[in-house]
Amino acid sequence: MLDLLVARGLIHAGNRADVLNRGREQARHILLDKRAEMRRLLGRHRVDYRVTEVELIAFFRFRRADDPDTILDEETITRALADHVGLPFVHLDPLQLDYKLVTESFGGPFAERHLVIAVAETEQALTVAIADPWDTELLESLARFKGKEIHPVLAEKSRLLQVIIEFHGFRRSMRKAEEDFRSDLPDLSNLEQLYALDGAGELDATDQPVVRAVWYLLNYAFDQRASDIHLEPKRDEAFVRMRIDGVLHTIHRLPKAVYPAMVSRIKMLARLDIAERRRPQDGRFKTQYKKYEVELRVSSVPTAFGEKVVIRVFDPGVLLQDIEQLGFFPRELQTWRAMLGNTAGMVLVVGPTGSGKTTTLYSSLHYLHSPRINIVTLEDPIEMVHEAFNQIPMQPRIGVTFGSALKNVLRQDPDVIMVGEVRDAETAQNAIQAALTGHLVISTMHTSDAASAIGRLLDLDVLPFLLSGVLIGVVAQRLVRKVCPHCAVDDVLTEEQALALRIKGARGRRLKVRRGEGCVKCRYTGYRGRTGLFEVMPITPRISKLITDKATQQEIKREALNDGMLTLRDYGIMKIAHGETTFEEVVAVTDDLPLY
């Protein structure tokens, strides 16, 4: 293996000597660490583990000889090995695997011992992912056992183990839970029987199989960067779906008998009333993922076949980004920083639900945070608890609303006030008063573009001369998916597409862009991650005068464009030109916007 990597220019001869001299000692450390990890994940004391040569070399984290800026990782070594032995390489993506095929083709202990999973099957052949290409005895025994041709593909050992532990661990938990609960549960095939659930036997949500099943589910969602987890009951089974980069994916099918127990476990974690199944409930809880604390918000509602649960994942790595990572171009980032640098006035972030406003607000507050200032937030509900902010939840049932809470907050000596949303006249007018009295107020509104926010505030009976005096700026935003960097290729924007975007001088030209071909790292979507489109409108003296004169939003937007503002569509075009996103993504979020 070492000679192969040297011959391919991936490592230096000195790296080879390092492995030969220190390999035995490092292998012992890897073995101890991996055994401890396997015991924890599998929940048993005795585990078998063998350190492979690929695993050992990857552990040294050598810089690649052909690319010193890149670390030689397990995937690169495994790819080189696959090419050497003439086997296809596969980067396993749990979302693309058939859960039933993986868990029913081989038992968990067999899969763990031989590091093998089934990835595809036809009537004549079974394709299996393996870590050891020289284990011909395994392949021969599989052919005899299955009575089919065996087509091996090579995969990273760490990915194989992850899939085996997650899939078979989840299956074991489901089967055990189903055995425990099947006999105790009523038929949930109609709405009438749903309301009879109160008379059914209590489900033990603390049973170990259920606890482990929920644990597997949450960790799987964190691994896949999911923003939402949906648990949906149907007539004969239940589905688990996850929203990843804004798109829902079906992940698992759950046995009908197990589903109520899993829901009860999640409700218990969120401190909800387990016995109450007829009314919607909301709660939250925190859990650990690797070294990070992740907050989750739980919403349950009754449906025809049982309780539907949605878990919103608040990952600090997403909600608390550096503002440089939000997607601003340098000029707009400088303008946004200047807006936030004011000690008094109002700044608005506008857009529809799901456009990234919360991330922009939290990231901006994180940017402003300092021991020298007092940041107070009014939220409904609190999206993510952060020690740097004084966060106040709204409770309309006892009279604590955005409008009423703003009056009390002014007595708390705030420097910066974040108002979750300006949705009524009382909130709008109190926010204006707070901005007039020397506070920086940051809030959101549901409007389509930046200029529309001014018209909306005037509709809420804010006086034009007051608004023109306190409004610092408005930022409208949308989210688009980013082209996957792992499978991005050059492409061209057709003349029809360019004309649809109203790109000047596009007729007869083929403009170079980028698109994702689709790979395992982006789940074959061609996209990985999301970025923002921003329409940044600072309130200049001329725009301020237009507000005072009660100008239309069309006139205000034209003035902003004359000052150099980029519309959301223009911003999207620039993102396409930079190879960050695609025509389809930009059109999807900007096609309904007015053109002035």
Characterization of this structure:
The chain is α/β, with parallel strands linked by helices and 596 residues long. The chain folds into three domains: 1-86, no CATH class; 161-314, Beta-Lactamase (2-Layer Sandwich), CATH 3.30.450.90; 319-481 and 530-590, P-loop containing nucleotide triphosphate hydrolases (Rossmann fold, 3-Layer(aba) Sandwich), CATH 3.40.50.300. 41% of the residues lie in helices and 22% in strands. The strands form four sheets. It has a seven-stranded mixed beta sheet with strand order 12-11-13-14-10-15-18, with helices on both faces. Strands 6-5-4-9-8-7 form a six-stranded antiparallel beta sheet. Strands 1-2-3 form a three-stranded mixed beta sheet. The model is unreliable at 183-203 (pLDDT under 50).
- Shape, per Cα inertia axes: globular
Rg from C-alpha positions?
28 Å
Backbone structural class: alpha/beta
Could you give the count of β-strands? Answer: 18
Which blocks of ≥5 consecutive residues have pLDDT under 50? 183-203
CATH architecture term of the largest domain: 3-Layer(aba) Sandwich
The residue-averaged pLDDT reads: 86
**Count the helices. How many?**
23
CATH fold group of the largest domain: Rossmann fold
Distance between the termini: 64 Å
Strand order of the largest sheet: 12-11-13-14-10-15-18
Main beta sheet strand tally, sense and closure: 7 strands, mixed
